[in-house]
């Protein structure tokens, strides 16, 4: 079976690699010539555990290939997956220009039945726009070529994307025809031999499922952060509260961890896009607007805590930042709380020393030389007036408190992910603040 994946970013590259691992012949297409050349030379542009080894293995086996020419790949492919970016417009809605560019290229080039599959996270109604764009190009050619569209949203967690794709808890597919459904069943059969569920829906429902799932998870995070902030005021322990409500089987414990805000490529963008979609239909998503507002405020909370320790002036203080990526096991800094915190620190006149196990290059790309890049977490904390933990990498979980106490100018820890024990730190002579 031959397929094409358009877009060699996070979703496209993981999708193409995992399909090729199951014996499917995949061509990943991207307009970025440098990226494609790097991929051919074994240089993977993103950090994702297990991805590099799997991609190289399948490239060498000839099942995974890379190209900049979609037109040349289309008629060798039974399905074309659209996995290009959908960045937010200024008004928060999803920008579909790249998705529709791919659709038009498909319409200009297909000579046999082809299934166009939207893999990118797109608003409800996008697949119909893709269908119209393909048909318009066929009409211009005077060509009567059969095709279908389908929606196949991704539910990959960064840092665990390979496992999620290879052993999915569900595969959601929206189709309009039996032919499209059968093709998608055949494509995903290797992944569902262990009875992982395939959920077939109409196309608008499949598109909505992706947004609704992310909106629910983001809502749980912002809800718990709101509760944590109230706990701070009334003297309750949010970790005990989380444990108490999470034990309710109707609620469960996942995504109830308070922290310094969510980030990444999905939650912030998808929440705003869903709010914007609702507004186009005259409906106000009041809960989701509040979710976004709480999250934006939460990203500033560590700086506010720091100011309480240095109420007079932060200018000239040296602050260590442990963790730059929005979550562990990724180098993704899109919408990361670290970006908000670092900007606040710099505006206050602080010297900012940063360390992250994998996101240092990405930080340098975004912030240049405005911060000090440290060789390890202890180097970052050396002579620091405070250490702010923003990402709960495993190597940060059990540092040598004795070593930190000796090298920090002021033994102050502000924990944005609640991974440390207050009694342990205060017993070691640290001042400690958390969410």
Strand content: 5-15%
Low-confidence residue ranges: none
Number of helices: 18
Distance between the termini: 51 Å
Q: What do the pLDDT scores average to?
A: 95
Order of the strands making up the biggest sheet? 3-2-1-4-5-6
The CATH architecture of the largest domain:
3-Layer(aba) Sandwich
Query: Quick one: CATH class of the largest domain?
Result: Alpha Beta
> Under CATH, the topology of the largest domain is which?
Rossmann fold
Structural class: alpha/beta
Number of domains: 3
Helix content: 40-55%
* Biggest beta-sheet profile: 6 strands, parallel
The number of strands is 14
Notes on the structure:
The chain is an alpha/beta fold and 435 residues long. It folds into three domains: 2-201, Rossmann fold; 211-298, 3-Layer(aba) Sandwich (Rossmann fold), CATH 3.40.50.720; 301-434, NAD(P)-binding Rossmann-like Domain (Rossmann fold, 3-Layer(aba) Sandwich), CATH 3.40.50.720. It has 18 helices and 14 strands. It has helices at residues 10-21, 33-40, 51-60, 71-74, 97-109, 126-141, 161-166, 178-188, 203-234, 238-246, 267-280, 286-298, 301-309, 337-347, 360-367, 377-381, 401-407, 422-427; strands spanning 2-6, 25-29, 64-67, 79-82, 114-118, 147-151, 170-174, 197-201, 318-322, 351-355, 372-373, 386-389, 412-415, 431-434. The strands form three sheets. Strands 3-2-1-4-5-6 form a six-stranded parallel sheet, with helices on both faces. The model has no long low-confidence stretch (mean pLDDT 95).
């Amino acid at each position: 079976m031959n397929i094409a994946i358009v877009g060699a970013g996070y979703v496209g590259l993981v999708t193409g690699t995992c399909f090729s691992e199951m014996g499917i012949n995949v061509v990943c297409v991207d307009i970025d010539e440098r990226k494609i050349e790097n991929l051919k030379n074994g240089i993977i542009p993103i950090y994702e555990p297990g991805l590099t080894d799997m991609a190289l293995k399948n490239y060498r086996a000839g099942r995974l290939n890379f190209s900049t020419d979609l037109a040349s790949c289309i008629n060798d492919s039974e399905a074309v997956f659209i996995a290009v970016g959908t960045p937010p417009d200024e008004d928060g809605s999803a920008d579909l220009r790249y998705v529709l560019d791919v659709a038009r290229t498909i319409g200009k080039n297909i000579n046999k039945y082809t299934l166009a599959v939207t893999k990118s996270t797109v608003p409800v109604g996008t697949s119909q726009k893709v269908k119209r764009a393909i048909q318009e190009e066929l009409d211009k050619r005077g060509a009567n070529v059969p095709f279908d569209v389908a929606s196949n949203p991704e539910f990959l967690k960064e840092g665990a994307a390979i496992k999620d794709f290879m052993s999915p808890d569900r595969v959601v597919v929206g189709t309009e025809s039996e032919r499209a459904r059968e093709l998608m069943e055949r494509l995903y059969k290797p992944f569902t031999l262990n009875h992982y569920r395939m959920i077939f829906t109409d196309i608008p429902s499949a598109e909505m499922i992706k947004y609704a799932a992310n909106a629910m998870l983001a809502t749980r995070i912002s809800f718990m952060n709101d509760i944590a902030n109230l706990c701070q005021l009334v003297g309750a322990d949010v970790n005990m509260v989380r444990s108490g409500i999470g034990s309710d089987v109707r609620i469960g414990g996942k995504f109830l961890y308070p922290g310094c805000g969510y980030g990444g490529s999905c939650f912030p963008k998808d929440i705003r896009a869903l709010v914007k979609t609702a507004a186009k239909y005259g409906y106000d998503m009041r809960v989701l607007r509040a979710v976004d507002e709480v999250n934006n405020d939460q990203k500033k909370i560590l700086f506010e805590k720091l100011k309480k320790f240095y109420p007079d002036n932060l200018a000239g203080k040296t602050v260590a930042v442990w963790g730059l990526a929005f979550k562990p096991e990724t180098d993704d800094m899109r919408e990361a709380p670290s970006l908000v915190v670092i900007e606040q620190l710099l505006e206050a006149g602080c010297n900012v020393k940063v360390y992250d196990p994998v996101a240092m290059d990405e930080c340098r790309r975004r912030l240049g030389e405005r911060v000090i890049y440290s060789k390890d977490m202890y180097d970052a904390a050396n002579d620091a007036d405070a250490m702010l933990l923003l990402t709960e990498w495993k190597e940060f979980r059990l540092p040598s408190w004795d070593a930190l106490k000796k090298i920090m100018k002021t033994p102050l820890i502000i924990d944005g992910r609640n991974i440390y024990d207050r009694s342990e730190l205060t017993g070691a002579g640290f001042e400690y603040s958390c969410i």
